[in-house]
Design brief:
This protein is mainly alpha-helical. The chain has three domains: 2-107; 136-298, no CATH class; 380-677, no CATH class. Helices cover 46% and strands 5% of the residues. The strands form seven sheets. A two-stranded antiparallel sheet has the order 1-4. The longest helix is centred in the middle third of the chain and has 32 residues, at 258-289.
């Protein structure tokens, strides 16, 4: 019997080895033979000896390209599923024999490689699932940890609390990814220090100075802790159990199991014998705070296995998964109507996809900003759906604008340049569209309804104006009073801010601050000929600019990867990627060397998409001409004699994957309008939503989840909330395997 099996395996293997040259001859050798060797790859000489490092490297590349279906290219005949499966299975089998880990398995987990999978294969219905995620421990984000500490009361003021967690701050990358799951020694050390400080605070309280100057002891100490601490004798079994249960409820939102209670009680008793009641209690409290459930999001799947071998998240796991997907709070602090999310889960009200969708929508709606009316006064109005806002930050990357250094010689003190404020404006722009929840992606790319913040409050608006009018001699307002009187005499609303630089801020939107009628209720419309969506917002334009110039290459790369679901390789280390600084020529002309044959293969995917944004300078201001020669100040009108040349804002969409949008574009506005109408762009938006809300890259088995989310978005009039609800009620989110 065993001999027959061996013979059968050898026969299958020999048939494959005979067939593999045919596979390469049919699908690969036209581009990868000894004569052509595209990308430096010659498959005619490839040997099936997995002991040679050179052969292993080639097989790694072959497996990656075939398994992600990036090769053969769409223009060539594609292998059928059987041939595809035979080749990849054989390569993986040979790797396994040599204990070689395929590099593609590592790359698939990283945010930078999200677009490696063939886009068409994900949305053409050829992949049928069933979908699931792998069981995982997902380390808490800094935001969740901050919220957790805040909910402990005055503990932050009682002792030094360190932020133990960090997330990826790379621009254009989803920061909170589940692959960042390990707590290293430095993280654990900080956690230990924090837990010890919290335990001391819980058991001893703090001295705090009251308004009348007296020092008062403030305690967060529950009676059960105090009874143990203030007693001279060992606590009773009842007291021990009650203390442990209290700590479990506080930090884990549940009662301890019988085993957990027994172990914690034993630890408490031993610690009290060696260190006394107070020290012993602190030791036991710390042990609860350091349980994995406090440090990690546990998504293992404790439900019963189904016919596909998948396990559903338990009610407890699902409550936390939904809560931390949508908020930074634990599920017992997230209200859905009259009940908490944890109560809903435990009562079986989240057992169906339909109920989960309804719950997700209710949570998003209850955190909607628009219910409070949009007024641009930051003291009165805060962003509520912070998780949604962070998606827009990760996706668009505009919040990195303050990190882009601008030469101080170009920014005078009266320029009003304030990137933090510009980012706040962008936050309001995207969240207004999110809250209105209609045709979200198109509005994000094409709306000219903008916000410009007033750094005061609605209730102080008239007070500020009154103060300026009545304090003409106040040095801080001398420059403002004449402006306010003139604007009010013209029947317009002035901007009651101290000094001219606060008013010139609006110049970054090409608004004439000397004659602008400030709209207190926003958004308001800017000219369609100058603004179209978030990609022409000063925040995005600054974030994706350089220190002295625009950055058409990285802007084009962003569009290629975020809107067209494509992938552009990193710059080879052998390439000196420096652009000429000879300012006698336009930036477009200085990019001409990238059209060299060895460069253009990649740059044709980026430059033509980024160059239409030359209608804006690197401060985000619309312009019709580019100033040549010297690096000028931020005010080009102060250099009237400088040489200028008309802006060439033409570009091209090349090999987008959507033939309907390929071709030349005359302006950035034509480019954005074309992108906003593309199904591929919409599907790419869905893919990035998947990665953010599920914390991982999509796989081919997630294809039904992506298709359903895309359908939910379309059928609900471009509703991003419907898209999110579809993702968080999908098999990919609920099941583990």
């Amino acid at each position: 019997m065993k001999l027959n099996i061996v013979i059968l395996v050898l026969c299958v293997l020999s048939e494959f080895l005979l067939a593999s040259p045919k596979f390469f001859a049919k699908h690969c050798n036209e581009c990868h033979d000894s004569e052509t060797s595209k990308a430096g790859l010659n498959l005619e000489e490839l040997r099936s000896d997995f002991s040679e490092p050179s052969s292993i490297d080639v097989w790694q590349r072959v497996l990656e390209q075939i398994e992600t279906r990036r090769m053969p290219p769409n223009k060539r005949p594609r292998p059928n599923d059987l041939a595809h499966e035979e080749l990849t299975s054989w390569i993986r089998g040979e790797f396994a024999k040599k204990n070689i880990v395929p590099t593609i398995d590592h790359k698939r987990k990283m945010p930078d490689y999200g677009n490696y999978l063939d886009h068409d294969s994900l949305f053409d219905g050829s992949q049928t699932g069933p979908a699931s995620s792998t069981p995982r421990l997902w380390r808490l984000s800094p935001h969740i940890y901050d919220e957790f500490i805040k909910n402990l009361g005055n503990v932050r003021h009682a002792a030094t609390i360190h932020q133990p967690f960090s997330i990826d701050e790379s621009k254009g990358v989803i920061a909170d990814f589940s692959t960042q799951q390990f707590a290293d020694s430095a993280t654990l050390q900080l956690l230990m220090m924090n837990c010890q400080s919290i335990a001391v605070y819980q058991t001893t309280g703090i001295l705090k100075r009251e308004w009348d100057g007296r020092m008062q002891l403030h305690r967060q100490t529950p009676d059960i802790f105090r009874d143990i601490i203030e007693s001279d004798i060992a606590p009773t079994t009842s007291q021990v159990n009650e203390a442990i249960s209290h700590q479990y409820q506080l930090f884990l939102g549940r009662e301890p199991t019988s085993v957990e209670l027994k172990n914690a009680s034993q630890l408490l008793s031993e610690a009290i014998r060696s260190g006394g009641n107070a020290r012993g209690l602190q030791t036991a409290l710390v042990s609860v705070m350091l349980k994995p459930e406090v440090i990690y999001r546990l998504e293992i799947g404790f439900g019963e296995p189904d016919k596909h071998g998948r396990r559903r998240l338990s009610a407890y796991e699902l409550a936390f998964a939904l809560s931390y997907a949508l908020t930074d709070k634990p599920p017992d602090q997230v209200n859905v109507g009259a009940e908490t999310l944890l109560t809903l889960a435990r009562s079986g009200k989240l057992d169906s996809s339909k109920n989960i969708k309804r719950t997700v929508k209710a949570i998003l709606d209850s955190n909607d900003m628009s219910v409070a009316d949009y007024r641009m006064f930051t003291e009165d109005h805060k962003v509520r759906n912070t998780r949604a806002l962070r998606f827009f930050h990760d996706f668009f990357g505009y919040h990195h604008a303050p990190r882009v250094f601008k030469d101080e010689n170009r920014i005078s003190v009266d320029s009003g340049f304030d990137t933090e404020r510009i980012v706040t404006d962008a936050d309001q722009f995207v969240m207004n569209i999110f809250d209105n929840d209609s045709d979200v992606l198109r509005n994000l790319l094409t709306s000219n309804n903008y916000f410009v913040t007033y750094l005061g409050s609605d209730k102080h608006f008239q007070h500020d104006l009154k103060y300026i009018r009545e304090n003409v001699n106040d040095a801080g307002y001398k420059t403002n009073i004449a402006y306010i009187r003139r604007i009010e005499a013209a029947g317009k609303t002035p901007i009651p801010l101290e000094g001219p630089s606060s008013r010139t801020y609006v110049g970054f939107y090409n608004i004439d601050h000397e004659n602008w009628d400030y709209p207190r209720k926003q958004p308001f419309s800017l000219p369609e000929s100058q603004r179209s969506g978030i990609l022409t917002h000063p925040a995005w334009l600054i974030a994706w600019s350089g220190n002295f110039d625009n950055d058409p290459i990285r802007r084009g790369k962003w569009i290629r990867e975020h809107l067209l679901a494509d992938y552009v390789p990193e710059i080879p280390i052998t390439v000196n990627a420096v652009i000429s600084e000879d300012r006698k020529h336009t930036l477009r002309d200085r990019l001409e060397p990238t059209r060299a044959k060895e460069c253009w293969t990649c740059h044709k995917k980026m430059n033509p998409l980024g160059l239409p944004f030359e209608n804006f300078d690197d401060f985000g201001r619309f312009r019709n001409a580019e100033v040549l020669d010297e690096i000028l100040s931020i005010f080009p009108e102060r250099h009237r004699d400088a040489r200028t040349t008309p802006i060439d804002a033409s570009g091209e969409i090349i090999d987008s994957g959507d033939k309907q949008i390929d071709g030349n574009v005359k302006s950035v506005f034509e480019l954005l309008d074309r992108l906003a109408n593309s199904p591929r762009v919409r599907q790419s938006f869905v893919r990035h939503n998947f990665r953010y809300w599920l914390g991982r890259n999509e796989t081919f088995s997630d294809s039904p989840t992506l298709i359903n989310a895309d359908r939910a978005y379309i059928e609900n009039g471009g509703s991003m909330k419907a898209l999110i609800a579809s993702l968080l009620s999908s098999d990919s989110f609920i099941y583990r395997k």
